[in-house]
Write a structure and sequence with these properties.
The chain is built from no helices and 21 strands. By secondary structure, the protein is an all-beta fold. A 7-stranded parallel sheet has the order 1-4-7-10-13-18-21, with no helix packed on it. It has a 6-stranded parallel sheet with strand order 2-5-8-11-16-19, with no helix packed on it. A 6-stranded parallel sheet has the order 3-6-9-12-17-20, with no helix packed on it.
């Protein structure tokens, strides 16, 4: 348990039949608090690892910028996922610039049963920041049974610039109040 300030990169690699499980000790609460405004709080590169039941946040109170672009330097993505066959189960992710970035190298990755809220920033032009930003080329991405709310932009955004959006399974999620935090959207 405890609050861990910083930016963390995981290269943990299990196997398809014996994944590594990363979770807080029973009865305790573990929180990763972003310390960088440009580097994600947690970046996952390794394969076959399950991240389960802990919190990732950014306690920086600043959310507005005079910049027009998406990358503001006010806060960074909470969790960036590149690791194949990784799972994110019952996570609590909030207040980053984006909740999860689920990218093409994360073949057959899954976000399941997580709560994602209050993500994004406000620029002059519009609100930026999605609960889940996803791309996929091979395998199947699964975004299942999550609760997503109160972002500055979209709930789930599948986007193809320099990527693809093939085989993305979105099922059983509850999404509401996306865009409501933005005065400009």
């Amino acid at each position: 348990g405890g609050v861990y300030n910083g930016t963390f990169a995981s290269y943990l690699t299990g196997s398809p039949t014996a994944p590594i499980v990363v979770r807080q000790y029973p009865g305790e609460r573990a929180t990763i608090n972003a310390s960088s405004r440009t580097v994600p709080a947690l970046t996952v590169h390794g394969a076959d690892t399950w991240y389960w039941g802990f919190e990732v946040t950014d306690l920086n109170p600043t959310r507005t910028t005079t910049n027009l672009g998406y990358t503001s330097g006010l806060r960074a993505t909470s969790v960036n996922i590149y690791g194949p066959r990784t799972r994110f189960i019952n996570m609590i992710v909030h207040d980053g610039e984006m909740g999860f970035g689920l990218w093409s190298p994360a073949v057959d990755a899954e976000i399941y049963g997580s709560i994602i809220y209050n993500v994004g920033i406000e620029s002059v032009q519009q609100g930026h920041g999605h609960s889940i930003y996803v791309q996929n080329t091979t395998g199947t991405k699964r975004i299942t049974d999550n609760i997503l709310f109160n972002s500055f932009s979209m709930g789930v955004h599948a986007y193809t610039e320099a990527g693809r959006i093939d085989n993305i399974q979105v099922e059983g999620n509850i999404a509401f109040n996306h865009g409501v935090l933005s005065a400009a959207s």
